[in-house]
């Protein structure tokens, strides 16, 4: 199923705030259809590049869409433009769909300020670029502004700290919509790693420990992730990735800070927990995940807590 993504494009838009998320979503195997909308058919970006063929602002967006509001080079002057006022009024009209979560609002950098001025941030946990946090608080006194965060989500409204954090947020959205494997493949294609801010839940084991560029480790992780329930031995795994067992162990410790055995255990725990959520009994879940017994599963659980 394809998801429509609508980028609101205004004069002076920060190029990376728009192109970073757009390129990230484009790489997700055709799962997103990108649109560019705004008051002007042609706009000049922060780097002087002109974008033409911008479609008019539609009165309504299809349910299930992502609505992306990038930031601007000079957001203080930006808000004084008639184009920004047009978008502010338009965003206000989208409020019922956004607050009912028919639309997912994604604000990059100072785009959160425009959403705040449209009345969309009252009572919402949010963030923005550190330079404009105080202005966000002033624009939406009722907002729950979070500092030192890469991105924040609250009831279908996503905000990010800006610039490259728009890529981080886009990868997380791909993970949510398309699954962790697609997010991982896009991150590796872009030669970036998946990040989270400190207060966010930990990444799933399929995405954790992937912020490295070593091909042998990635191959080993791919094999383990594809069949964590298999009775993997270090020599068998090392042979499949064409390194010695000792070297593979050393690589995991050096680049991941974790042993091969512990990494596999994290994967198995995630599988077992998923089985439990699906209503399986503990013994069934433990065996399905590759544990030899419920007792071994409970011990692993204890080590992870």
Automatic annotation (TrEMBL):
One example GO MF annotation: DNA-binding transcription factor activity
InterPro entries per UniProt: Class_I_gatase-like, DJ-1/PfpI, Homeodomain-like_sf, HTH_AraC, INH-QAR
Keywords per UniProt: Transcription, Transcription regulation
N-terminal signal peptide: none
Listed CDD domains: GATase1_AraC_1
The keyword Transcription regulation belongs to this UniProt entry's keyword annotation: yes
Transcription regulation among keywords: yes
Pfam families: DJ-1_PfpI (PF01965), HTH_18 (PF12833)
Sequence ranges assigned to domain HTH araC/xylS-type in this UniProt record: 218-305
Cross-referenced PANTHER family: ARAC-FAMILY TRANSCRIPTIONAL REGULATOR (PTHR43130), HTH-TYPE TRANSCRIPTIONAL REGULATOR RV1931C (PTHR43130:SF3)
Entry protein name: AraC family transcriptional regulator
């Amino acid at each position: 199923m394809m998801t429509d993504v609508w980028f609101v494009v205004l004069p002076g838009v920060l190029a990376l705030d728009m192109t970073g998320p757009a390129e990230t979503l484009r790489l997700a195997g055709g799962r997103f259809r990108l649109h560019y909308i705004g008051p002007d058919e042609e706009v000049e970006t922060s780097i002087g590049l002109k974008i033409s063929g911008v479609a008019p602002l539609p009165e309504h967006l299809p349910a299930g869409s992502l609505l992306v509001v990038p930031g601007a080079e000079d957001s203080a002057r930006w808000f004084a433009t008639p184009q920004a006022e047009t978008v502010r009024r338009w965003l206000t009209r989208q409020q019922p769909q956004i607050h009912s979560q028919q639309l997912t609002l994604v604000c990059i950098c100072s785009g959160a300020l425009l959403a705040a001025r449209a009345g969309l941030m009252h009572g919402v946990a949010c963030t923005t670029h550190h330079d404009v946090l105080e202005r966000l608080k002033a624009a939406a006194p009722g907002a729950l502004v979070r500092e030192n965060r890469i991105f924040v989500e609250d009831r279908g409204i996503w905000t990010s700290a800006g610039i490259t954090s728009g890529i981080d947020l886009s990868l997380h959205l791909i993970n949510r919509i398309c699954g962790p494997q697609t997010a991982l493949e896009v991150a590796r294609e872009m030669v970036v790693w998946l990040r989270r801010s400190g207060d966010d839940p930990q990444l799933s084991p399929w995405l954790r420990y992937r912020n490295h560029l070593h091909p042998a480790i990635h191959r080993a992780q791919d094999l383990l992730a594809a069949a964590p329930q298999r009775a993997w031995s270090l020599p068998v795994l090392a042979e499949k990735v064409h390194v010695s067992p000792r070297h593979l162990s050393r690589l995991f410790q050096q680049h991941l800070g974790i042993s091969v055995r512990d990494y596999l255990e994290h994967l198995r725990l995630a599988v077992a927990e998923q089985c439990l959520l699906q209503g399986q009994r503990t013994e069934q879940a433990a065996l399905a995940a590759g544990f030899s017994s419920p007792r071994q599963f409970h011990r692993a659980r204890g080590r992870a807590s």
